[in-house]
Design a protein that fits this description.
The structure holds two protein chains of two kinds. By secondary structure, chain A is α/β, with parallel strands linked by helices. Chain A is about 45% helix and about 15% strand. A nine-stranded parallel sheet of chain A has the order 5-4-3-2-1-9-8-7-6. The longest helix of chain A is centred in the last third of the chain and has 17 residues. In chain B, strand 5, helix 5 and strand 6 form a beta-alpha-beta unit. Classes of the chains: A alpha/beta, B alpha/beta. Chains A and B meet through helix 5 and strand 6 of A and strand 2, helix 1, helix 8 and strand 11 of B.
Chain lengths: ~280, ~400
């Protein structure tokens, strides 16, 4: 059965442009503001949405997303609340794909089976679990596929020709190409090098390839989007939230608008690109 | 739940995917997967290479000063009035603890792999000092990640590391202790994959680290077995060691795991008591989860968020534990018990007084358990405790805990 992710990439192919994938941390800076930000993303131009599940020890994340997770946890965010946010979002949007992204432990403690059931019920379409490599596919990836939830795998510059088939084996929905070795939000990627890497991956698979890590501007989104099926932006959006908090760490009246304004700008970037 | 069927051997782990029972494994970001697979390949080859083992043996003997003595603590035995107490004296090693055993093995592996840069995490600073030491000896630049809180409470070790040429990076994320330092070291590794060797200090992390750290530390147990046969003509009745991440303990325990008559006890940091959150007793009060590349017992809340532990000993201040210990707990082969800060402090002072040895606060936890058990045992029974570190680094912490102001004395 096709997921919302499959359908969305088919639509993008018809439009002949790359998609924009936006990342926000659930519960950042609090659940209410986070819900408002989330609900407005499709209208601002997000084609797919990644929602971060906050974790106390985000080993692959840079300072921006670490801080976002800490703000969320401090405001009382839990995995159950994150699922509730997706349910709320689905009341007004049944088309935009939702991908939950995070680390394994909170899911493991929630209970893998219960988590997949609940995620399916609220309308989650895909999962990116940073610390579950293909070697651990039997734990969550294969059970997720059985529930028609895509398990999206990351490929990196260290994923060589020998490793790539293993990474692609059980990946569905799309492949997330991490354009740099490093943590989220680090140095900007070099579009030429990324283009070559994506082409090498696309020679081996038909599934769409999204590229992320280090994308901050409409121009970068357009440059990266030329050779990719979608562009992921995370740290830049999360930083906008940080820049729009009052001295108490609470959102200001303009916080949501500021996030959506950047999404609109980035969306204009990917919408300039015409895939041949 | 039924008790699992006892295996033929407790020494078979890990399996090819790095599991000890359900524990261990390789839960890391894809960027690191090719690196840990490469490390495994090189370690497997090194194990089969007699020259590699010969080099480790040579350095253990001439650089570290191994074998460390197995010492009969006669005065303490008299004081406790029960079982004979022996110490495996790894506190006499170069750098002052068992940490050097692991660092020498791993630096030779790094050299073999053609890596040119060393990173490490440290809590109390003992591993950081040992890592900085081997990096200096072999001419590698070395960056040590250390929680800001630990940098402040372990300043003598920070200075030692700097003297040895290491760069210290204070980590402010989280509570600024060992787990945060480990997160930051992993972030460095993810960023500098080409040239960097991550020299992990304890028998935890993704496979093959728990296995290779255990193997390098097993020299403790192997020597102990020989020395015990020489001294008493038989194996001991009980082994006791402190457990933070668990590298000194697994080093002593592993060679004895299939000697069924040897009772084995691991001692966790009970901090200010297991009722609240101020302890590091992950096996006594935690539950299985996934952190830092392996599944193991962790201190965590109901949402799977990792808690900050507390211990008077910075070296035990870690909310997890090596996966093989989790397996040994669940299989029932090793018993794990908590010891409180106050009990460890008393044992610390007792050893100074009776044997003229100032122990580190980590083995003081093991000693406190010996103090409880020895009097209940027969005089012809034997306990071996791993005295894994010396206490020079801890005198300020102990002074503070005892209300002594060293500035004005």
């Amino acid at each position: 059965m096709k997921t919302r992710i499959d359908i969305r990439f088919e639509q993008l192919k018809v439009e002949g442009r790359p998609g924009l994938v936006t990342f926000v941390m659930a519960g950042d800076p609090n659940m209410e503001a986070s819900q408002e930000i989330l609900n407005g993303l499709p209208k601002a131009g997000a084609d797919l949405i990644e929602i971060g599940m906050p974790f106390s020890d985000p080993m692959a994340d840079g300072p921006s997303i670490q801080l976002a997770g800490q703000r969320a946890l401090k405001s009382g965010q839990t995995l159950a609340k994150t699922l509730a946010m997706v349910a709320e979002f689905r009341k007004t949007d049944n088309e935009t794909p939702i991908i939950l992204m995070g680390y394994y432990n909170p899911i493991y403690i929630y209970g893998n089976e219960k988590f997949l059931e609940d995620a399916n019920a609220v309308g989650v379409d895909g999962l990116i679990i940073v610390d579950l490599p293909p070697e651990a596919d039997h734990e969550l990836c294969i059970p997720a596929m059985d529930k028609n939830i895509n398990f999206i795998r990351l490929a990196t510059p260290t994923t060589d020709a020998e490793r790539l088939p293993k990474v692609l084996e059980n990946t569905s929905g799309f492949l997330y190409y991490v354009s740099i070795t490093g943590i989220t939000g680090a140095a900007a990627p070099d579009p030429d090098r990324v283009g070559k890497a994506v082409a090498a991956i696309k020679a081996k698979t038909d599934i769409p390839v999204a590229v992320g890590f280090g994308v901050r501007t409409a121009q970068q989104a357009a440059d990266i989007g030329k050779g990719a099926d979608a562009v992921v932006v995370g740290s830049a959006l999360v930083s906008v939230i940080l820049d729009n908090l009052d001295s108490e760490g609470n959102p200001k009246p303009e916080t949501t608008k500021a996030v959506h304004a950047l999404v609109e700008e980035l969306a204009s970037g990917v919408r300039c690109v015409k895939h041949g | 739940m039924n008790k699992p069927i006892e295996p033929n051997s407790f020494k078979n782990g890990p399996d090819e995917d790095g599991h000890f029972g359900i524990f261990g494994g390789r839960y890391v970001a894809e960027t690191l997967m090719p690196l840990i697979l490469d490390l495994e390949k090189h370690y497997t080859a090194a194990k089969k290479d007699p020259n590699f083992q010969a080099e480790v043996d040579y350095l253990n003997k001439h650089y570290t000063g191994r074998p460390s003595p197995l010492y009969f603590a006669e005065s303490l035995t008299d004081e406790l009035g029960g079982a004979k107490v022996y110490f495996k004296r790894d506190e006499l090693n170069h750098t002052g603890s068992h940490k050097i055993n692991n660092c020498l093995g791993q630096i030779l592996l790094a050299k073999r792999m053609g890596k040119t840069r060393i990173i490490a995490e440290t809590g109390a600073g003992q591993h950081g000092v040992a890592a900085a030491t081997v990096a200096a000896k072999f001419g590698f630049p070395c960056k040590v990640y250390m929680g800001k809180t630990d940098v402040e409470r372990q300043s003598p070790n920070v200075f030692r590391m700097r003297l040895l040429g290491a760069e210290i990076v204070p980590v402010t994320a989280g509570a600024g202790t060992l787990k945060d330092a480990m997160n930051e070291a992993l972030r460095d590794w993810v960023t500098n994959v080409e040239d960097t060797y991550y020299l992990i200090g304890t028998a935890a992390g993704p496979h093959p680290y728990p296995e290779l750290v255990r193997d390098f530390q097993s020299v403790i147990g192997i020597e102990c077995k020989e020395q015990m046969m020489e001294a008493e003509g038989r194996l001991p009745d009980m082994l006791v060691a402190s457990v933070g991440g668990g590298s000194n303990a697994i080093g002593l325990f592993h060679p004895f795991l299939d000697d069924k008559d040897v009772q084995i006890v691991g001692v966790e940091a009970g901090g200010r008591g297991l009722e609240g959150d101020e302890h590091c007793a992950s096996l006594s009060a935690g539950k299985p989860g996934v952190l830092h590349g392996n599944r193991t017992f962790l201190l965590q809340d109901d949402d799977g968020q990792i808690l900050e532990g507390h211990s008077i000993s910075a070296g035990l201040d870690y909310p997890g534990i090596g996966p093989e210990h989790s397996y040994l707990r669940d299989s029932g082969r090793v018993e794990y018990v908590p010891i409180m800060d106050t009990e460890a402090l008393e044992a610390f002072q007792l050893l100074c007084r009776t044997e003229g040895i100032i122990p580190a606060l980590e083995p003081s936890h093991a000693l406190a358990e010996v103090v409880k058990r020895a009097p209940k045992m027969d005089k012809d029974q034997i306990i071996v405790m791993n005295l894994c570190g010396r206490g020079d680094k801890d005198v300020f912490t102990v002074g503070k805990a005892l209300g002594v102001d060293m500035e004005t004395e």
